[in-house]
Amino acid sequence: MDGDTRLTHRVYGSPGAARLVVLVGTGIAVATDPAPAETAARSICVLAVSLDGAAIADPGTFGSETPAEQTSAWLVELIRGELAAPQFTAAGPPAAGLIIYREAVDVALRAAASLGDTIDRIALVAVAEPEQPLDRDDLGILISAVSAKALIMNGQREEAAANAAANWYRTQLPSARVEMVPGVAELSLTDVWARALSHVAPRTKR
């Protein structure tokens, strides 16, 4: 990949936990545990993936794979590799929950579409709608087959465009609903980490 691309990941949570939660986002917010007390309160293993630079860029030569598509393929292999651990396969075919933050939405949803039933729950936090009509059509077709239960969260005082984006994803994902977080203008992972975990990792509370 491009030399400016940065793909970093780390694992935290409970060693040996049987539930994997994958967090995919951009920027420093993904580099550390958003709410350590909330994470520790659940028997989960968190795979946090930070995507920056060219890793989420869409432009590419017509007919070739874009950087975002390459990153999505890399993410699929990373998740499959993590789920191959005995702690996740002991009870049968493994599945994971996926939390998507802001600009990583295109890459992460493409990965979810490729992984199929391996991703059984998704939480989208403050994500943006694709800018171009062709991009919306492309992503909409792709994610129409994603059967995971999806929770879309936005701040109640976010800009109108953010609320429109939440509603767009609600109409594109077959099993999705929107929750508006009261009193928040710019939603952060810390604001909704407990709620996101309750959705993507149910019945894991200690």
Structure, explained:
This protein has helices at 36-40, 67-83, 86-89, 105-115, 133-143, 160-172, 189-200; strands spanning 6-13, 20-25, 45-52, 96-101, 119-125, 149-155, 176-181. The longest helix has 17 residues, at 67-83. Residues 1-5 and 59-63 have low confidence and may be disordered. Helix 2 packs across helix 4. It has a 7-stranded mixed sheet with strand order 1-3-2-4-5-6-7, sandwiched between helices. With 206 residues, the protein is of the alpha/beta class.
Number of strands: 7
Helix content: 25-40%
Mean pLDDT equals 89
Poorly predicted spans: 1-5, 59-63
Key terms for this structure?
206 residues; 7-stranded mixed beta sheet; single chain; 7 helices
Concise overview:
The chain has 206 residues and is an alpha/beta fold. It is 35% helix and 23% strand.
Secondary-structure blueprint:
Layout: E1 6-13, E2 20-25, H1 36-40, E3 45-52, H2 67-83, H3 86-89, E4 96-101, H4 105-115, E5 119-125, H5 133-143, E6 149-155, H6 160-172, E7 176-181, H7 189-200
Parallel strand pairs: 2-3, 2-4, 4-5, 5-6, 6-7
Antiparallel strand pairs: 1-3
